[in-house]
Every structure is written in C-alpha cells, then in structure tokens.
Amino acid sequence: PEEDSEEEPKLKYERLANGVTEILQKDAASCMTVHDKFLALGTHFGKVFLLDVQGNVTQKFEISSVKINQISLDESGEHVGICSEDGKVQVFGLYTREGFHENFDCPIKVVALHPQFTRSNYKQFVTGGTKLLLYERNWLNRWKTSVLHEGEGVITNIHWRANLIAWANNVGVKIYDISTKQRITNVLRDNVSLRPDMYPCSLCWKDNTTLIVGWGTSIKICAVKERNPTEMRDLPSRYVEIVSAFETEFFISGLAPLADQLVTLFFVKENSDQMEEEFRARPRLDIIQPLPESCEEISSDALTVRNFQDNECRDYRLEHSEGESLFYIISPKDIVVAKERDQDDHIDWLLEKKKYEEALMAAEISFKNIKRHEVQKIGMAYINHLVEKGDYDSAARKCQKVLGKNMDLWENEVYRFKTIGQLKAISQYLPRGDLRLRPAIYEMILHEFLKTDYEGFATLIREWPGELYNNMAIVQAVIDHLKKDPTNRTLLTTLAELYTYDQRYDRALEIYLRLRHKDVYQLIHKHNLFSSIEDKIVLLMDFDKEKAVDMLLDNEDKISTDRVVEELGDRPELLHYLHKLFKRDHHKGQKYHERQIGLYAEYDRPNLLPFLRDSTHCPLEKVILSRGLPIFLEPCVFAMRTYIYISFCRCLSSIHHWPPQ
C-alpha cells in the first residue's frame, strides 16, 4: 500500500499465498466467501476450493466448466451454496454432499443460504437470475419454490441476515422480511447511466437491522425499523429509514463494516498526463466515517494488486470476517488480506519513524512484564538513536529505564560510553543499590573524573556508597594527584571523606582542621574523636573559638579542664574558655580563679569586677593587701576595697544602728 509518511496506517496487508498462488497462476478468482474457520474460493474455470486462512487448499470441487458466480455459507460453515454462469445451482453439506442440485436454462448470478440453514427444518435458500426464487424443503422432504420478485432485470447481489433478505437488480435495492413475507422497501439506484453489470451493487449488513448499499459512487446506510401499530393499515410492519447518504470520489467495488466506520474498496480511474483518455489505477481501500450527508476519510491505501491495469470495477470484491476484522480484497489474479494493525504494529511504526519515546511508552503499557525483552529491544534502539544524535545525557538517562536489572547490558553500555568519551554522561545513572556492577566499572569512571574534573569526582564520592569501589585504590589515586597539586582544596576535602568512610578519622580530622572545614565538629561528635583532638585544641580555637569552647565544655568528661588549660597556656582563648566555664558553674575551675584574675586584667577588664564579686574561690586578701600591683589593677583594688567597706557598714547598721547620728 501507498502510505502517508507522517500518518500511521490503520490497516496492514499481506497476500494470500500458498495454494492460492498456484491456483491463480492457472485460473482466475471470480468470487470468494469467508467463514471464521476457512475460505471458499470460486474460479473462472468452474472450480471451488476450500482454503485454510493461510491459503492452503483443503478441498476442491469441480462444479462447472465456466465461471462460478457466487458461493454462500451458512453460519455453521457446514453447508455451502454455489451457482455458476451456465445455470447450475448446488446446495450441499460439506461433509455429506446431500442436498439440492439443479440446472437452469439461464445464468444464475447469486445464491444465498438461510444463515441458520444447517439447524433449520425448512432448509431455505434463495437464487437470483432474472427472478428471485425462494427454495425450502417441505415435510415430504421435497423442494418447494416461490417467486419473491421478478420483472426488474437481472438480480446481481443477495445478502441474507436473520429474517431479512436484501437484493439488488437493475432498478434498485429491495428488502424482504421472511418472517412476515412482506417486501418492506425499495431503495432506487441513483446513477442510472452506469451499466449495472459493469458497476454492480455492493451490499453488506452491519447488524441485523442496518444495511449498507454502495452503487457507483453513492453510499446509503439504511436502518430497518418497526412501524407504529397505529400507522400500519395495509403497510408492512417494518420500514426503512436512510440515515446516511453521500457521494464518493471513486467507484465502489465493495463494502464492509468496521465498528461504526466503513471499509470501502474503490475502483479508480485516473487521467493520463500524456493522453486525454482515462486509465485504470490501483484500487484503494479506505476507512471512512459516515455522516448524515457526507463522510470523513480516516485512512486511504492504494493497493498494488497483480494485473490491476486489466481489471474493471466488477472484477473486484471485498469480503470480511466479522470475528477477526479481516478484509479480503479479491481480484482475478490476486487476493490481498487487510487486517487492523495491533499494538505491535503501532510500536513498529513508531520505531520506523524514530519516535522512540512514544514506542517505549507504548511497549511498557502493552507488554508490561510479559515481554520485557521486547521493551528492552525497543529501548536499545532508542538509546542507539540518541547516541547517534549526540544526545548523550538523554541516552544515559534512558539506560535506567531500559536496562533495568540486566547487569550485562549495563556493563556493555558503560564500555560503549567509554569508547565514545562519554563516561561522565552515564556516571550519574549507574546502579548503586542492591544490584550493582563490578567495582572495576565504578573505579574506571572515578579515574576518568579524577583526570579531568575534580569537582565531578568529588560529587561522585559524596553520592556513591563507598562499597561500590575499592576505597584504598581511590585514596592512593587522590594522593598521587595531590603530589602535583598539594593545596587543592577539592582533592583534600574528598580525601578526608574517603578517610572517613575508611574509618581513618584522625587523618580526616587533620585535613579538615588544615582546611578549616565546617564539618570538623560534626566529624568529632559523630565518631567520638575527642582523644584525637587533645593536641589540636589550639587549632580548633583558631578555626572557630565559639564552637570549640562549646564543644569542650559539653564534653568535659572526655577532655578535662586541666588538659584544655595546659594546651592553651596564657593565650586569650584560655580566658574565653574559663569565662564560659565560670558562667556555667562558679565552682568549676576554681583552682584557676587566681589565674583568671590576671587574664581578665590583661584581656577583659570590664568583666574582672563581676568575676571578683561572684567568685567565692578568689583569694581576695591577696588582691586587697597586695603591694606593687600593676598600676592598671589599682582602680580595681580600690573599687574592691570600697565595695567591701560599704557592705560591712550596711551589715553593722542592720544590727546595731551603726554608725551613730
């Protein structure tokens, strides 16, 4: 078929081959009918072949020496009716060969069995030549014939559904109700200029009450309805309402229902660019949506059937299998099967059009866990496409979805990304949970980053669990790089993180202190490294005095005050530490209160007097009676002496009303 490159086709096609190929090489197809279980093919040389759905011959009947005009099967597929151009009519059981055999003196164009022929006691069927004849077997097992209609030319088509028989002659289409024995409509032929033998009428039932009529370029949809009893009088109990009528661009060769749409086979004539005369083009199979007075084209495919240049409109037929939505396009030298495209076909089309994202989504919805390999196949095609486009990040991101738990595929992709120099692109999407790759894979990527991107390397070390790779190997690699760039803060920080994971906290702490890194206190607390910082108190104070003092005071049981005082000596940080210690508890650090006085005097005079006032362990007599104190202490001593005198006087006053007036 000729397909629009942008619009997805609705149908897919294949030739009916095997035994059919051999038949049509020597003979030509004249008609065919379709059952859910098998096919029945009639030829121009008077033969009928029963075929399986693949086209293999299962039975052959020599009916006549001339063209088979029509084959009819009942719903059970057990009885067949056949008529031919030389007037032969045969109705028989496929498994019994008992039935009706008659020769008429005129061509019989059509035959139709009652849908329930096998089950019915009456064994009814109709034939169409110049008359519409009803045959039924009576209680004496004899065939009774009734003329249902005549006088309007040759009957070219008959379709029997439930109790309704529809037929077409030169004038139009009529419907007969076998249950009431009433003819209930007459749908006239629109284009009377077309020869009915060259452009025959196409009929098909959509359901038990909806008949579709195609003739020339006209389509009518007829709904059989029950008449209101009050309106009957002498009228039939049913009537027909034409619910849709419209013209088509090409000549109709066949019709079939597809849900609420129509499958239409068109005979196409086109004008030649070089000559004014028309030529026969490839037939078209369209899906159309009928509207009340027009139709909407859903899809249109031009079919390359064999010898289409030699065929007329009457040479094509369209038959369908209701059970599987299969449509058979019959022409003298070719039979093509059209089938609705399924989800697999939809996905194949998306892949063909490089719409990989849509194909992957469709596959996941369709296959779920049943065909995981199919989803991966589609996904790999998508990844390949993205790599070819140079969209490496998107390709790497898709690996998570497509490769899933297949570690072999993962490793293959990693090496492919290495080959094209894109290890960085795939690094952030690698498995890192319960399922993981070999350590060598992760180490390869870390080494790649270490060569070209220190920041990216540091990010991976932070994000990847340490058990993914050999920690010692990576530590050594970082140390080697630090030899070339010993002050690189990113490498040093990353090395500290590696040491931390390896539980070499003292080395990590050393680096953090050297870098004055904010995480140093968190590291100490988290891993209880207080024994490791006893000789690093000055460094901690230099980094952040407030955090250091708070940490030391909060952990006096781990680092004693004596140890802190020893490490800090007479540095100003010692006063900060002792001052906060005194604020927390006036009695702690009492043995250093005398020393604190000198520290206050040197570094924080405003807090000296409050300290002297609040401390009960400060040797005040030494302060008050001391001689030769530094001059800056004299105001403090004087203030202290004054404070003691006033306090003493107030005490005596409360007891003896002293001093006297």
From TrEMBL:
GO cellular component: HOPS complex; late endosome
Residues in Vps41 beta-propeller domain copies: 11-340
Protein's GO biological process: cellular response to starvation; endosomal vesicle fusion; macroautophagy; protein targeting to vacuole
Keyword Protein transport found: yes
InterPro entries documented for this protein: Beta-prop_Vps41, Clathrin_H-chain/VPS_repeat, TPR-like_helical_dom_sf, Vps41/Vps8, WD40/YVTN_repeat-like_dom_sf, WD40_repeat_dom_sf
Keyword Protein transport belongs to the record: yes
Domain of life the protein comes from: Eukaryota
Keyword terms: Protein transport, Transport
Spans of repeat CHCR: 549-661
Name of the molecule in the record: VPS41 subunit of HOPS complex
